[in-house]
Amino acid sequence: MSQNYGTKRIVTGAHYGLRDWLAQRVTAVLMALFTIALLAQVIFGEPISYYKWAGIFSQQWMKTLTFVVILAMLYHVWVGVRDIFMDYIKPVGIRLSLQVFAIVWLVGCAGWAIQVLWRL
To answer: SS3 of 53, please?
Structure first.
């Protein structure tokens, strides 16, 4: 005999756990390695100037790597912000509005990053 504990169903991000936990760690390691490599170029190279900085990012592989790291950072941010919204914002309409705003903002940041990187 089954017992009914209620018909209210709570729909929140089911089955995100391991995938998002792993994504957070992988993107964090990628960002850390990129930061260390960039700092090594700046610290152990000639004194920093606009021309040195522009020279670092003038090569196509560096622009591409930087954009990949920016995309990783945006995904890292999305996972964190989405989890905060799911945990602390209970009204579904407000939570959905905040999530849509966050997505639009992050896509805008990606567009801005493309503009900045390929303008150098």
So the answer is: helix
